[in-house]
Amino acid sequence: MMAVQRGYTILIVPLGTALSSLEALRFFFWLKRMQELERERDALLQGLEMVERVRDWFQRHLLEAQRRQKHMGTEASYFPDPYSNQSCLLLAKIQEVNLCLKNLLASPGKPEVPPPGFGGPLYPPGKKEFQQQAVTVLKEQNHLLIKEVSEKSDRIAQLEQEKAALCKQLKETRGYRLPSHKESTFI
């Protein structure tokens, strides 16, 4: 199902009275409210489509995680997942999405009666609980960013060492002195 985005038009219907009449004003506000409701409906339909796609995505990844977990002990030699950093980033994004969905469900303006298949009524999280969740997500993201910066710094240091070794090797093979990277730096 693909959401169709469409433009909105304003219909002007002459009422046969002055523009400042009460009827014209009521009609204007009614029309404006109808447009708002139409936009809200379109946004909800688009959100519903995304939720369906996200549900499929979650199910696929859940099955894959269960498969990896099941086969984890059966492998003769265990090598750490080379994508564990990506896995941590994915976990942080999933937690962030879950928090956003929870906050959406707890937001005011939702229907009073929950749709069938949902648990009991959801209440908005307290300010302290929300702040704790936000701090937890931010700490996890900060930890991942620090880890990524550290890995990149290590990689840069490794590349600098390799560069120095290659320059030294080139100097020895050519028999003349190459300027070091410190000497070639412009100030």
From TrEMBL:
Keywords: Coiled coil. InterPro entries: SAPC2_1/2 (IPR026828). It holds the Pfam family Suppressor_APC. Residues 142-176 form a coiled coil. It comes from the Eukaryota. This is Suppressor APC domain containing 2.
